[in-house]
Input
Amino acid sequence: MKYINIFLLILLAVGQFGCKHVGASRPVKYVAYLGFKFDGTGEKGGNFSDSIYISALNMYLDRINEREAAQAYPVEFQLKKYQCNYQEDTIVKLYQSIASDTNILMVVDNTWGRHIRHAAPIIANQLPVISISADQNRLDFGKNAVFLQPNDPQPNYFVQFIDKVLKTKSVGFVTECDYLLHNLFLESLEANRISFDSVCLWQRSYIQNRIVPEDSVAVMEKHLQRMLSKPEPSVILFNTHAGYGDAIMDFIAKADIPAKTFVGISTGMKEQELEAITREKGHTFIKYARNEEALSEEVYRDKKHLYEIFPRSLENGTTQQERAIDNNLSLCYDAMNIFETALRENCTNRASMVKYFQSLANRKITFDNNLYEFDNLVIQRKDPNFDQIHGGKTRSCPTQINTYGEPIANLRVGLDIIDINDIDVRKNTFDCNLLYWVIADSQYISKEGYIDFSNISSEEANRYMIAEEQDSNYVVRIYRISGKFLGNFKSFKFPFDHHECKIPIAALSSSNKIRISFDHSRLQINDKIKDFEFNDWDTKEYYVTLDNQLTNALGSPDKVTYDPNDKARYLENYKSLNVHLGVNRQPWGAIILIILPFIMFSALPLFMLFYQKSSFEEVGELIITSFLATVAYSINLVQISPATDSMNLAYIFLMMTLGINFFCFIYVTIVDRRRSASISEDGSPKRRTSLLKVWMPVILLMVFLWLLYMLFG
Output
């Protein structure tokens, strides 16, 4: 009975150790989500973006709540949802309701500028808000409302692009005069001393947010004909929504006017239609390029998880839906990162959260490997990017501007992986053949040295240029790299290990000095993974991410003064395009050569213990033979194992086999000694029952099976 109690105590201790500690219940605080419509009722039904945002926010809040005990926050967070049903007059009531609920810590707002503007007096100095899609419109939100992607910076970016890149001081200005951004355009034109002749349109003319009445179109065309029929101004600046934008494009396509440069077009026309206009009419279109960058690795994995929890299937969605998911998820990721930076500053009540948001003006903050920079209105700074459509071709403008309006070089970098092979876990390397190319204006091509492959083995890789072409002012250089790349392989799970071959191509300059844009389209071909074939490995997953590398400015001549209270002040964000290929080892060779022999060497002495009539000499010799065979067979393990100086599952299995043989031998020895002691003086055996003899084989077998499950289960 004593041994049974010991065994039960061991099981209890293991169970106690293995169980996850569940902390005491915490008070609940809420993050409010204010969207358009998500309940699916009514004429318009549910809004797709709202559904994505709600699912993503719930996912991120669950992650915050599940932080380990050392990083756990004193409160638990849940999402509380509000919808405005697309009505502006409901916003004030909704925000009043939110403000009166002291358990709501922060608001994530997904309404437009014309909605949230009505709540500005309620928000100012009272409610911490992160706006996902609204314009700030120079309203007073008390600087405790963070705006992630408003259009407010665009007027200044367009005007500075005209001034610094196109180098003109006179433009035609076609604008919706009642559009809230109109005044921002006027301010920027005046600040940059650019004269203009304007055509005034009216946003209130729209029918259902998109359709412009025919009489309004006729008036517009009359004024455009007057302005555009003259050679000057040669640059025309637009500030319209897509409704007037489509009507303007139709007019330009059919009107007989001199070739001009149109900046800031907003239209629902397809790119091919715009290219046809430039080819036939000789015009040039400059448009604000939408963000089509690859997702970061964190957001990519979050997207995979979102596919599992989203209430309706996202698989095989349209390209537009796919872009919406990527954009919405990235915005939620940023919003929750900003929220958690406040939590890490112990902002667990509304007043401290408001104060923290107000401190973000003209400041940088970091969360994990993400850098967020804000202007004086707490608008997140994001790099402007302009595309140029001319001569029937769409290209990234050779000269861009940074977030401060300064002209910078633009390099387009493309990558195509030809082959990955010869994965050597022991040497921590893999072979790769790839092509990459650099496209830049001839005046900027010398800056290609800022492109780097950080994990290439300089001793065992060759890099050489295979072609150089020139198209107008663009220079295209194509390079080939062949050789060994360094991996970061962990072999603990050998022979069931899986690894990731990662090829990073990095920009060694921040986007405020040189714009290096990565063309990852070739890398995202659906069947690209089929190009990789290995003898001993199965391909598991192939994907591309665009990740951040935060560091102090490389090569900056400016003096850096360390401030422990503002560590992010001098940090800059360097982009890195990463190609990931996940592989799994084909385990059958290792199973046959290692696992099966060790299982047999472990199981044989265990099963012999159940044959109680076997003599000590028989069982002992068998165990000694099994022990010596295990030691001899370990030589084979050393030859096959990817590393001899670090632990892996195969080595643990070897130690387990040796341990089982050792304890079996000890057990048999003890039983034999007890049997000898139980013989009476006259030679007849004493009749006594040994619980050790009955239960120890069972215990050893259970321990053996449990270890197998823990190692390979």
In short: Confidence is low (pLDDT under 50) at residues 1-5, 17-23. The domain at 588-712 is CATH 1.20.58.390 (Methane Monooxygenase Hydroxylase; Chain G, domain 1).
